[in-house]
Amino acid sequence: MTQILSSAPIKKKIIKELKTECKFLIENGIHPYLKVILVGNNPASLVYTASKKKFCEKIGAKCDIITLGENADQKTFLEIITGINQDPNVHGCIIQLPLPAHLSHLDVGKLVSEEKDVDGFHPNNLYAVLSNQISTDHFVSCTPKGIITLLMEYNVEIANKRVAIIGRSMIVGKPLACLFTNHDATVTLCHSKTPNIREITKECDIIVSAVGIAHLIDQSFISNKKNQVVIDVGMNTDTNGQLCGDVDFEKVKDHVLAITPVPGGVGPMTIISLAQNLLQASKNRLSL
Ligand code: NAP
Question: Model pTM?
Answer without folding.
Answer: 0.97
